[in-house]
Structures are given as structure tokens and as C-alpha cells.
Design a protein that fits this description.
The protein contains no helices and eleven strands. The protein is mostly beta strands. Strands 2, 4, 5, 6, 9, 10 and 11 form a seven-stranded mixed β-sheet that branches. Strands 1-3-8-7 form a four-stranded antiparallel β-sheet, with no helix packed on it. It is globular, with a radius of gyration of 13 Å. It starts with a strand and ends with a strand.
Length: 112
């Protein structure tokens, strides 16, 4: 299993970023995919998940209404569209599947 995140960077408060996670080594179309984030000294926290049946989604309260998770099964890729970003969204964002596979993470920094 390989998960490779991309799309992180530096953005001003109120801005947007779109993260991508390219997956391989497993049946992507039959796997739920999740995004987590972690800041220094804190535990990794759940951000969003998308199921493989019907594409149902769920979000952490802190990002509801601002973030949107989606997937492209033809490209084995999951996305996280992040809008109205806040400084507290600054973290390393990780893609995950099956509760045990993780990507290397991509840094998101929200700062003026």
C-alpha cells in the first residue's frame, strides 16, 4: 500500500488549498479513505472520511462547512478541498486507509 499526499503549502487566512492523495497497492474503489492532521506536540486528529459505498462523508466539527472530501476512483485519488482556512488549520495533513496505512504527510501553513 502506498499513499502519497500533495498540494500543501503556505496560504493566507481565508484562502483555499486542495490536497490530493494518490493511492496504490490496494483496491481503492472498495476502501474508505480518510484525512487526518497533526501539529507538533499534539495527537493526530481526524479531519474527514469518505466511504466507498455511495461516497458518504463525515467531518470533524472544526472543519464542517469549510472542507470537502471527494474521490476519483478512476484515478485512485482522494482530495481534500479546504476553504476559509484559519491559522488553527496549520498542520501536517495525512491520508489514511484501513486505519493502518498512512502517507508521508503534506504541510499546510495558514499565516499572513
Amino acid at each position: 500500500v502506498q499513499l502519497v499526499e500533495s498540494g500543501g503549502g503556505l496560504v493566507q487566512p481565508g484562502g483555499s488549498l486542495r490536497l490530493s492523495c494518490a493511492a496504490s497497492g490496494f483496491t481503492f474503489s472498495r476502501s474508505s479513505m480518510s484525512w487526518y492532521r497533526q501539529t507538533a506536540g499534539k495527537e493526530r486528529e481526524f479531519v474527514a472520511v469518505i466511504g466507498w459505498i455511495g461516497g458518504s462523508t463525515n467531518y470533524a466539527d472544526s472543519v464542517k462547512g469549510r472542507f470537502a472530501i471527494s474521490r476519483d476512483n478512476a484515478k485512485n485519488t482522494v482530495f481534500l478541498q479546504m476553504n476559509s482556512l484559519k491559522p488553527e488549520d496549520t498542520a501536517v495533513y495525512y491520508c489514511s486507509t484501513m486505519s493502518r496505512y498512512w502517507g508521508q504527510g503534506t504541510q499546510v501553513t495558514v499565516s499572513s
